Amino acid sequence: MPEVKHIADIVGEWVMFLQTIRGDVVMLGSIGWVLGYATIPGLAYWLQDYRYMSYASLIAIGLMAFWYYFMFESPRWLITNGHIDKAEVVLRRALQMNGKPDDKLKTQLTQLSAYLQESQLNEKSKRNHTVIDLVKTPKLRKISLIMWYCYPIHALVYYGLSYNISDFGGNFYVTFLLSGLVGLPSHLIPVPLLRYVGRKKLFAGFMLLTGLSCFAVIPSDREWLTVMFALIGKFGDNTSWNVMSIIAPELYPTVLRQTGMGVSSVIGRLGAISGPFMKDLASNYGLSLVMSLYGILMCLGSLLALFLPETKDREIPDTIAEAENKAFHTKQNLMSRQIIRADIALLAGIGWVLGYAAVPGLALWLQDYKYMLIPSMFGLGLMMIWYYFMFESPRWQITNGHIDRAEHTLRKALKINGKSDENFKTQLNELSSYLDQMQSEEKSKRNYTILDLVKTPGLRKMTLIMWYSWIVTALLYYGISFNMSDFGGSFYLTFLLSGIVELPSQLIPLLMLRYIGRQKLFSLFMLITGVSCFAIIPAEREWIKVTLALIGKFAITSCWNVMAIFGPELYPTVLRQRGVGASTVFARIGSIAAPFMKNLAARNGLAFVMTLYGTLTVGSVVLVQFLPETKGREIPDTIEEAERATHLEKPKDNNNIKLNKF
């Protein structure tokens, strides 16, 4: 197509220009952070009260709100996702502000959009991209794992050096001011370097500089020398962070850029959360240990960065195929509804992890439960707003005869996702007729009660096993969480670590559920929990006990997450709410008993409680083997289908009208 070639030539010229200025804009745009950072010691020295400093921060936040009004959405993202009209408005405003002509812009945009849509048709995902796409293909998986390592170590070293700058000596206000001012060259020096040196080399080089500076702090015996090396390390880390903020978005394709950056940012919070606690680590084990840790982490990161692809003078990829730079092949139904269901359930739990990890910091800072209730109420208030935008389950609405409500919900979802609703009403009526026919064969006629959970043999077996497993899971989760101080170490630090280990317990099952069945995965994590509990009994050193307790906490949290997916998939739609609700009630037995495990340990010893935990987990592992596997199977809608599932029978075809049509 000659017009597409013409468009490609134009875009190619734009790309070479944008590649040049993109790094400049990112770097220079961050100078505001440096100026704000450098003003903190002056304000602190002048005001001497954090409340007055909070007022100054609020003024800056108010000004930032006005800035959002003038900020454009990315035209590249708008075009890639089919919002041509919005992209045209943004580009015309940009051309007008820069005094450029806008002749034939509409035609060029339409041709470019058609070209991008044609290239995206080669991908089976059809824009339904999730966080799993970050690790599906080899190159993206490598990029994501390296980024997920680099983000937290950068945050750890950055905040570790920034918050604990007084550990290196000198006047606190002066050293804090200098640590802020070194951010200025860290934003200016990369600007010319990015034009001549590749992103990858620059990224790895400044990480290596940071690591070597941290190692150099260890033997230095003069205060000024220690401070100087710390400031060089802060400069190197800040510079590599800035380079990373450029190379990371260039590595991810447009269809996954927000997802990739979002996940990297979330994982990076682990380092930011851990940074302030490096001061306690330095107080207990010496500054040399902390500097050695920083140096090892940064040097390893520098080595890993060399395995990243270079993005200098290259066009930013728009699709996964372009990011992989090879033909894109995928199996049919790779992004199945089963996978997406597990992904959403597990990723939604990251909010719990972040809230959990914030508790020890708030407790250490506020020192009063009454003040801690205030941020809790603030979170609840935001959650009430979120409920307004949440849809009811269309599956539940259809199954219970609320066809009009289901139609409204599904049409709204189709509209939000830009999908066609052609023949939608006919398909919905056919599906409703099928469900009515299936449910008419059951004598209960939708008048289901909690007794239906134990009336039929298959459901009775599933229900009793689920009730036992939920009690054990809740008992061990809260028993370990509430009583972390029983294992030794600093209460605040161990509580923080017990919250942080929940992040991998949200992400690791996310990947494993794609290849391992729910039943096997739950048994595996429950077995790890039991072994960890038994291993605590002979342990004598505090750090070993704490490590084993954290492994047990990780495993039991993973069990909880797998059970949260496994349980609803076992129960039929007509009984799912009652089944999951009853299981939750029984789980409360375990959570109610958990705080009293501390008294039991004080009276009979920690070994007795750990033996109890281990024995209960072994019982749960054995019982779960009698549950049917749900991986790759359709969720049952009726009691009859659930009974067939317990006997591992495939459901009848019934004209192939099932919920997976939608």
From TrEMBL:
CC annotations in GO: membrane
Boundaries of every Major facilitator superfamily (MFS) profile domain copy: 1-313
Pfam families membership: Sugar_tr
Topological category with respect to the lipid bilayer: Multi-pass membrane protein
Signal sequence, start to end: none
Gene3D superfamilies: MFS general substrate transporter like domains
Record GO terms (molecular function): transmembrane transporter activity
PROSITE patterns per record: MFS
Positions of transmembrane segments: 25-46, 52-70, 146-166, 172-190, 202-219, 285-308, 344-365, 371-389, 462-480, 492-513, 520-537, 543-566, 606-627
UniProt key word Transmembrane helix: yes
Keywords associated with the record: Membrane, Transmembrane, Transmembrane helix
Keyword Transmembrane: yes
Subcellular location: Membrane
SUPFAM superfamilies found in the cross-reference section: MFS general substrate transporter
Protein name: Major facilitator superfamily (MFS) profile domain-containing protein
Source organism of this protein record: Medioppia subpectinata
